[in-house]
Amino acid sequence: MTATTAQASASIPATLRRLAPYLREHGWRIGISLSLLIAAKVATIGVPLSLKAIVDHLDPRIAVLAVPIALIAAYGVLRLAGTLFGQLRDTIFERVAQRAMRASGLDAFRHLHALSLRFHLERHTGGVGRDVSRGTRGVYNLLGWVVFNIVPTVVEIGLVTALLLRELDWRYAVVTLVTMAIYIAATIWISEWRTAGVRAMNEVESLSNARAVDSLLNYETVKYFGNEDFEARRYDADLRRYEDAAVKTENSLAVLNGAQALVIAAGLTALMAMAAAGVVARQLTVGDLVLVNTLLLQLSIPLNMLGFTYRQIKQGAIDMERMFALLDANAEVRDAPAAPLLRIGGARVRFEHVSFAYDPQRQILHDVDFTIAPGRTLAVVGTTGAGKSTLSRLLFRFYDASTGRITIDGQDIRDVTQQSLRAAIGIVPQDTVLFNDSIYYNIAYGRPDATRAEVEAAARTAHIHDFVLSLPQGYATQVGERGLKLSGGEKQRVAIARTVLKNPAILVFDEATSALDTRTEKIIQAELAEIARARTTLIIAHRLSTIVDADEILVLEHGCIAERGSHAGLLAHGGRYAALWALQQQARLAARVGTESTAETLP
Predict the structure, then answer these.
(1) Over the stretch 105-163, which tens digit does the pLDDT of each residue have?
(2) Is the C or the N end of the chain the one with fewer CB within 10 Å?
(3) Which long-range contacts (CB under 8 A, 24 or more apart) does 83-91 make?
(4) What gap in Å lies between CA 270 and CA 124, rounded to an integer?
(5) Is the separation of the CB atoms in 161 and 177 below 8 Å?
(6) What digits encode the pLDDT tens for the residues 85-101?
(7) Would you call 603 helix, strand, or coil by DSSP?
(8) Domains of the chain and any CATH numbers
């Protein structure tokens, strides 16, 4: 066995050990299931014994020929008992398997939400979802196949061996055990050889699924560039690789089935020859011959499934490996031990000499230092890539600062719970992504326990209530995947309503009105100013016209604060901010002139 094979084989007990915590609460169910399993197998082994007795009873050489009613009845009862005990075992154990699947899936789901933004930016969402889905299904499959197939088969082999030793002699037990050993060894060896193909199939399937989801999520981009055929060809290339791996894996099944049939046929032939010789020598009865034949054939039924069972177990272990790998992924941002809740007083926000880099070779922020006083508004402007949005990500603690610290009311945000920190902050992002649900659900997501009146009040504040009522389904209107059924401005107003409903002490507007037309922008700006009046507010802006009333404006360049001051002070300074203001005013004037010229040419 190669090192890789040995490692793969070792993964099954390792995986079962990982499952142990999910099974402990169901100890009594497992105990009853095992008891029923043994009872079912004892009844199953009793069937060949009753058949032997019936045959011997009908043999005129050793008994008076008569219909053995009692033995026939016993035969029927044993067959029924074996089936009933097996069904009861399945019924009782089903709750164990389902609960383990549910608990492991929930753990994976919670852990994925606990992982940092960096992890999610580097992973394919479709691939992660597929890994969790297959992993939870693997939990169920592994438990089911081990408990319902492997353990019963082992118990049955033990009972058959003991029965052969008692009823016949050691030679029959030895031949049976040797046959079983060769059969199991051949099955495991060939199945291990096939495992590489299964792994390849999984890898290609995850990749194709991730690419398909990514393509569908970017439906509009695909359409913009007319790349439907390109996406189809790329997806087909993945499917072709999966097809080749699947064909190769399934073709190898013939080798496995052939080897299994050969071993069983050889063992059965040897046993039948020995039993027939015993009958001829009058050492055994015809019933003994039937007993030997029936026992081995009865064993061959679950053993014929051994290859499939082993593959399913290996598949379950492989699927669970990927899910457990996700569970083992390090959460980059963690709560400190016994971290307290954030205590909000005036909601003073302080960035103290903060530096940060997503990658050690690419610094984003350099010694950024500023304070947002309680109830005041600070705006941050700068060119694309200057590090503006990174400030909000650090404030939400999606990442921890490389150096320096961020405090709220004097409390380092690394020392308080993330839940309480994020509960105190509301954000309206530039790129608003909505859940594929109703408008009501998406607004209420800001505070799921809010009343309908509170949800509608938030919608009125964001100037979207009347629009929603004009829709045929009102607040029950479905927004589609990522909110694609709504316009950019409508999505933005839903996001504003959601944040208003949350009612946070600290507000972050990251290009909050970038998707709105000029008229709506002015209306929303007035409302946002009213909302922000009693709150500490951080505005990340591109349009300088939206931040003229900010208490302080920072100009970021290459991650450093290049200028700071009020709108009037920065214009008077004549620096970078003044140059940006002049450039945007020229662009606005040119746009206005263009609009007026177009209007004059219309009939």
Answers:
(1) 777 777 777 776 666 666 655 567 667 777 777 777 777 777 667 777 788 788 888 88
(2) C
(3) 83/40, 85/36, 85/37, 85/39, 85/40, 85/43, 86/36, 86/37, 86/40, 88/36, 89/33, 89/36, 89/37, 89/40, 89/148, 90/148
(4) 56
(5) yes
(6) 888 887 887 787 777 77
(7) coil
(8) 15-328 (1.20.1560.10), 342-424+504-603 (3.40.50.300), 432-503 (3.40.50.300)
